[in-house]
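// run 5 | inverse folding | seed 20
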């Protein structure tokens, strides 16, 4: 082979000669996500791996090829990562880590938080019917609507269980992107629906929760929820197992592993594989635009539902509940709770709502899992 052929082969291997306009658009989107994560600090643990997976697949599409699509039959690296999403392994492990990291005490101390977590599921059911109106099938609509829970693992889990893997990429990217963009999306609606007086409401300190209560809570929730909706066992069961690791006090090593090393490994695998579903061919189409728009609508309606119920409870309790904590019911833990704290502190710097907002926040996680289980029951999965 002469030198000219060698140069020609080298040039043909370069990505410049194989990428389309769509690939460059997605590369630009990936760079914007990286900017938001690194420069602006918008949930870098999520956005950096997602954005980098997006960058990789649009430069080198074969990284997401299945074994059947590759010349040597081995498959691309991120394709294997994504199989763990489709098999619901990574979403369930994420729930294990979330449970091990989360204190359910605020929810136990203030059970009324369950109502705000339930009200925030308004976004899910609103998006379901909107998706039906836009021409999606029942299962597709259910998979899309769960984006409204701002819960990426549950979105992936339900999409897989309903067999809607053809739209899993846009759903996953929308869900995780909105989770990361909670600090941008929620505050305008929270302020629009509340008065300055309501945002300044200071809530009474939560009662102390005993160790026995914290140990019994995950066990009781698992029994009750899984008896009613057995299909939620992989998510609710792992969430509560992780929390039992935390609260039992006798398996500190398991709690530390689940909430640190294992959690971060799973985030890397899940984030990069989710980002890698956004090849230009799969992502830049009308269906994807509809899914992203429906996800945003669901998320907004979820925020509105939680805040409006918070306003109602504020009136019923004589001003003892700050409506802002209702927005945390969308379940993005602990991001949504931190947003409630931030908006409240803007109205009154001495106001501390974080622990109060954690109640609806945790309730929202359970509520979104229950909503997913309800859809699975409806469709006989």
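// decoded
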């Amino acid at each position: 082979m002469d030198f000219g052929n060698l140069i020609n082969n080298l040039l043909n291997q370069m990505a410049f000669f194989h990428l389309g306009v769509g690939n460059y658009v997605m590369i630009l989107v990936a760079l914007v996500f990286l900017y938001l994560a690194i420069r602006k600090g918008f949930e870098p643990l999520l956005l950096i791996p997602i954005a980098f997976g997006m960058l990789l697949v649009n430069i080198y599409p074969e990284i997401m090829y299945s074994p059947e699509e590759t010349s040597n039959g081995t498959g691309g690296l991120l394709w294997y990562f994504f199989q763990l999403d489709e098999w619901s392994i990574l979403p369930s492990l994420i729930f294990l880590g979330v449970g091990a990291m989360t204190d359910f005490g605020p929810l136990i101390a203030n059970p009324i938080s369950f109502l705000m977590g339930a009200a925030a599921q308004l976004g899910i059911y609103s998006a379901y019917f909107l998706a039906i109106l836009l021409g999606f099938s029942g299962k597709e609509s259910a998979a899309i609507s769960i984006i409204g829970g701002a819960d990426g693992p549950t979105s992936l889990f339900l999409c897989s269980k309903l067999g809607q893997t053809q739209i899993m990429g846009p759903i996953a990217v929308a869900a995780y992107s909105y989770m990361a963009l909670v600090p941008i999306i929620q505050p305008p609606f929270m302020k629009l629906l509340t008065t300055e007086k309501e945002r300044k409401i200071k809530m009474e300190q939560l009662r102390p929760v005993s160790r026995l209560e914290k140990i019994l809570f995950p066990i009781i929730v698992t029994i009750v929820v899984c008896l009613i909706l057995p299909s939620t066992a992989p998510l609710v069961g792992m969430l509560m197992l992780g929390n039992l690791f935390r609260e039992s006090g006798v398996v500190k090593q398991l709690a530390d592993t689940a909430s640190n090393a294992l959690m971060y490994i799973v985030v890397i695998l899940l984030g990069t594989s989710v980002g890698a579903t956004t090849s230009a061919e799969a992502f830049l189409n009308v269906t994807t635009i509809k899914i992203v728009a429906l996800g945003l609508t669901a998320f907004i309606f979820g925020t509105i539902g939680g805040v409006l119920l918070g306003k109602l409870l504020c009136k019923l309790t004589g001003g003892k509940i700050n409506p802002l904590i209702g927005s945390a019911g969308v379940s993005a833990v602990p991001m949504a709770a931190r947003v409630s704290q931030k908006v409240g502190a803007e109205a009154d710097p001495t106001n501390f709502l974080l622990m109060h907002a954690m109640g609806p926040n945790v309730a929202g996680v359970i509520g979104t899992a229950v909503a997913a289980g309800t859809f699975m029951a409806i469709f006989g999965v």
